[in-house]
Amino acid sequence: MIEASAGSSPEGRAARGSSVATSARLPASAVAICPRCETEALYPLAKGPAAPRCPECGFEWREGAVDIDPERPLDRCVFCGRDELYVQKDFNRQLGLGIVLTSFLIVFLVMLLHDHRTGIYLLFVLAAVDFVAYALLRNVAVCYLCQSVYRGLPTNPEHRGFDLGLEEKHKRLRIDWTSQIAERK
Fold first, then answer.
1. Mean pLDDT in each 10-residue stretch from start to end of the chain (185 residues)?
2. Kind of pairing between the strands at 85-89 and 139-143
3. Domain spans of the chain?
4. Computed from CA positions of residues 101, 107, 108, 110, in that sequence, does the dihedral angle turn out positive or negative?
């Protein structure tokens, strides 16, 4: 059985699955939001069958009862059982947007108050820093349906980057899935 630790906040839900990876080998874990009570929880993933249960309302994800091996790439979502996942960098989106806007403002002010050439050089420096940070960040897998985020697992070569077409398909499925869960109470 997978034990969960709750950590629900509006900021946490908005930036869910988006923190900077710092250690060399992260323990296998998943962050998921309960479709019934909307509690965000961290679920450590251990070898064996998974039976995730919400720490707040006790909801059990029956659809995703799959065997987990933290040494092998994930092929199905532990929570909803879907096999459609995408890969993205493990970085807080709100922090990234803040960095971009702050960088833009600094470059603009340097170009306005000092020199255009210095501003262009500063843009190149910021681009190099961004490239290095991007290369150092680890990948996470995200489920299209339930939006669960998986860390510390090897990357599955079948999982590609975000596909807007698949996301549009899953928007309607996500609504139907959560309404079915709400009816199961």
1. 46 40 65 86 78 80 70 85 89 90 94 92 93 91 91 88 89 85 69
2. antiparallel
3. 5-91+137-183, 93-134
4. positive
Backbone angles phi, psi at 33, to 5 degrees: -110, 125
The overall longest dimension of the chain from CA atoms, in Å, is 64
SS (H, E, C) the chain: CCCCEECCCHHHHHCCCCCCCCCCCCCCEEEEECCCCCCEEEEECCCEECCCECCCCCCECCCCCCEECCCCCCCCCCCCCCCCEEEEECCCHHHHHHHHHHHHHHHHHHHHHCCHHHHHHHHHHHHHHHHHHHHHCCEEEEECCCCCEEECCCCCCCCECCCHHHHHHHHHHHHHHHHHHHHCC
Compute the distance between CA of residue 156 and CA of residue 141 in angstroms, rounded to an integer.
9
The CA distance from 33 to 43, in Å, is 11
Residue 76's pLDDT is 85
Q: How far is Cα 49 from Cα 59, in angstroms, rounded to an integer? A: 17
**b/e per residue 156-170 (b: at least 16 CB within 10 A):** beebeeeeeeeeeeb
pLDDT, position 50: 66
Nearest-angstrom CA–CA distance, 131 and 79 = 33
